Amino acid sequence: MKGPLFYSKILLFGEYGIIKDSKGLSIPYNFYNGALKIDGASTEQAKASNQSLIRFTNYLKELTKQQPELVQFDFESLDRDLQAGMHFDSSIPQGYGVGSSGALVAAIYDKYALSKISVLENLTREKLLRLKEIFANMESFFHGKSSGLDPVNSYLSIPILINSKDNIEATGIPTQRPEGSGAVFLLDSGIVGETAPMVQIFMENLKDKGFRNMLKNQFVKYTDACVENFLAGDLKSLFENTKQLSKVAINHFKPMIPSQFHEIWERGIETNDYYLKLCGSGGGGYILGFTQDYEKAAEALKNYKLEVVYRF
Which residues belong to any copy of the GHMP kinase N-terminal domain (predicted)? Predict the structure, then answer.
């Protein structure tokens, strides 16, 4: 058995801000994917994944006892498949901010949830919010606190526009221009990041009034503008606002940016060759880059591994 593929995602805009009701834009990233698999595999990786799935299943059993109206699963089939060695066969790097746990949550829901919301349905706002709530509860097993957006994106495999906590919708994004000189790219930090400690730092910072004001008056303001600019295809404004967002991040989110990247982060802002921003919670994993001239950015960052996500 090999289940359907679930893809990684990239939150282009909205990291941390969506906790405080900023806009957000999440897109599927088909370069990485994962699927549930039963093939009698006995690799160490498959065994570790199987054990992790058993722990996750125990968590889901508790969750369905506490919130029976939220979601129910076919635990008989799930337990049987786990005994047969089922694991999540995935190319999605863990701790990189591209939704490895989200794809796993989506795969389990897709195969074992009873009376599930289908991808083929007319996805009303109510259904999307319902999915987000179910997935937030499921994914909390991995992060302690989850918005549920990564699994929604992985499950539906379509771009998701977050207007606010209680208002999300499927959206279209401007068509890529494969020959375009501008690009959104991923920079590999070479460090595995952990979501929970980064979110903890952010929650601590929220106790500070100055930080809360900065978040509202700068971070959320520029995040909202970037989402609107990107969807409207207004590249001039997009790069102006991304530059501001990059500045706010290096000034106020330093703990989330690995120290060895502080200098190249600032260099991008000074030269305008590229602007860097957090990809997910930060602390390692991927860093997201925006540039109007990819060749120039690639030259400036030639010591790092880059992957193009989207061409302007």
Answer: 84-150
Q: What is the DSSP letter of 18?
A: G
* Sequence-ordered list of residues with C-beta below 8 angstroms from that of 135, at least 6 positions apart, any chain: 102, 105, 106, 109, 146, 148, 149, 150, 151, 152, 155
The topology under which CATH files domain 6-170 is Ribosomal Protein S5; domain 2 (3.30.230)
Please name the residues in contact with 249: beta carbons below 8 A apart, sequence gap of 6 or more: 256, 257, 265, 276, 277, 278
pLDDT band for 41, please (50, 70, 90 cuts): low
Query: Are 283 and 94 a contacting pair, CB within 8 Å?
Result: no
Render pLDDT for 90-124 as a digit per residue (tens, 0 to 9): 999 888 888 889 999 999 999 999 999 988 878 88
Task: Give the global pTM.
Answer: 0.88
Q: What values do phi and psi take at 122, rounded to 5?
A: -75, 110
